[in-house]
């Protein structure tokens, strides 16, 4: 039976999920962690709760992919490599070029490499994995699914920063956004749940995970999103600061005796957000179970930023039919969803505390007479990736 694999390669990891298509059934999934380090961890989950795990040094992505393919046959998950007819690769930066998912030929692969400037940790690893697939599975169709594609519909009013315009023209300095595949998936599901054609909906999608972003989706198209030139902008995240006044950077660099701006940006990416505010953890569960004042304050700040973006996106679209919660925090935290929504009753939007008392299940969580539907929709980026591959196989 024809199978498609969704691949999410990071600089030192490779997550994957294998589907039988077009049935859309998951046959196996796994992760390779600590690639290039010692004691890499290779895990496969398959069948009826079976698990294969091995810990050994995996030097690079090529070895990881070869190991994965070997194990898929070894564990009888596939009979032969020929069964894998498609591979969908998640690519972080697609720039302005990739407006939708694309078949990867030599030209596309070169463009992905060239876009490394926009995602230095991700695009090179992703390009490397595609090359490995081209080599070991020459019959397989490789498709790139870009985090940025969904946001290429944003109008200039929302993607331009208020800086000299020539920086956009000369250097492509603009807002690109991220998490596009997730925002696209949940907005399509939301239209189904609303029982309306997507083209007639105004939806605000809140992807609240370790990385977090909010998108205004008008008529099925992203018109504004909270992440920016990179994923650093927007909401308070696990370790990222979100929006900040740029003038604080030279001020802090002087105080901290930092001379390299990259070091300062690294602090904003890795030591800020929930972690920096609480001094405890980047993980929302840890903060929710802590009785420390700084943990409580970090939670308040997180909820406040989400609320502000929702409020502003109601204005961007001049209305809203549904607000969607997804990803780790959005899908699982009853308390955070409630906290966010309790500050948004001014436009008649009301969460139903009983319906909201659920984790990871697709459902309406607003009251029957709420002016706007509040929806809980578990995201499924891997399925979306495999659907895009299927569409391009034809
Ligand atoms: P990533 O961006 O790494 O994919 P996830 O979407 O997995 O992140 O989200 C991770 C976040 O979700 C963490 O902050 C974690 O604490 C939070 N989370 C997961 N389960 C719960 C829960 N039951 N309650 C609150 N937060 C949760």
UniProtKB/TrEMBL annotation:
Q: Which residues are catalytic?
A: 147
Residue positions annotated to bind substrate are 90
> Which residues bind ATP per the record?
15, 207-211, 283-285, 328-332
Q: Specify the enzyme's EC class, one word.
A: transferase
The protein's name: Acetate kinase
What GO terms describe the biological role, i.e. biological process, of this protein? acetate metabolic process; acetyl-CoA biosynthetic process
Q: Which UniProt keywords apply?
A: ATP-binding, Cytoplasm, Kinase, Magnesium, Metal-binding, Nucleotide-binding, Transferase
For this UniProt entry, the molecular function terms from Gene Ontology, in alphabetical order, are:
acetate kinase activity; ATP binding; magnesium ion binding
Site-annotated residues for Transition state stabilizer: 179, 240
The UniProt entry, under NCBIfam families, shows: ackA
Q: Quote the function comment for this protein.
A: Catalyzes the formation of acetyl phosphate from acetate and ATP. Can also catalyze the reverse reaction.
Might you give the EC number(s) for this enzyme? 2.7.2.1
């Amino acid at each position: 039976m024809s199978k498609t694999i969704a691949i999410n390669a990071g600089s030192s990891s490779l997550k994957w999920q294998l589907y039988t298509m077009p049935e859309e059934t998951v046959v196996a999934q796994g992760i390779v962690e600590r690639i290039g380090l010692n004691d890499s961890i290779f895990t496969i989950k398959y069948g009826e709760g079976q698990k294969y795990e091995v810990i050994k040094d995996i030097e690079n992505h090529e070895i990881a992919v070869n190991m994965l393919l070997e194990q898929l046959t070894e564990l009888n998950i596939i009979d032969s490599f020929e069964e894998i007819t498609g591979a969908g690769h998640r690519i972080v930066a697609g720039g302005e070029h990739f407006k939708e998912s694309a078949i990867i030929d030599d030209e596309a692969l070169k463009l992905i490499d060239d876009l490394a400037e926009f995602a230095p940790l991700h695009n090179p690893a992703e390009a490397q994995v595609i090359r490995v697939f081209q080599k070991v599975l020459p019959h397989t169709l490789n498709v790139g699914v870009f985090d940025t594609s969904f946001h290429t519909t944003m109008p200039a009013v929302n993607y331009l920063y208020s800086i000299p315009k020539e920086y956009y023209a000369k250097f492509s300095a603009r807002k690109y956004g991220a998490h596009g595949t997730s925002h696209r998936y949940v907005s399509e599901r939301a239209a189904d749940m609303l029982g309306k054609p997507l083209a007639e909906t105004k939806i605000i999608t809140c992807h609240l995970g370790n990385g977090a972003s909010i998108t205004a989706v008008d008529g099925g198209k992203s018109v504004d999103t909270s992440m920016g030139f990179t994923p650093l902008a927007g909401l308070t995240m696990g370790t990222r600061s979100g929006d900040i006044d740029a003038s604080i950077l030279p001020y802090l660099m002087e105080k901290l005796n930092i001379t390299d701006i990259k070091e300062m940006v690294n602090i904003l990416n890795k030591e800020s957000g929930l972690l920096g505010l609480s001094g405890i953890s980047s993980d929302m569960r840890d903060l929710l179970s802590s009785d420390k004042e700084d943990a409580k304050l970090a939670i308040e700040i997180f909820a406040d930023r989400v609320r502000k973006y929702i409020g502003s996106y109601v204005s961007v679209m001049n209305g809203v039919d549904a607000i969607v919660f997804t990803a780790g925090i959005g899908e699982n935290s009853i308390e955070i969803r409630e906290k966010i929504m309790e500050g948004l009753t001014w436009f008649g939007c009301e969460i139903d505390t009983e319906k909201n008392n659920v984790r990871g299940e697709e459902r309406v969580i607003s009251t029957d007479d709420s002016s706007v539907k509040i929806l809980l929709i578990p995201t499924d980026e891997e399925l979306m990736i495999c659907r895009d591959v299927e569409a391009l196989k034809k």
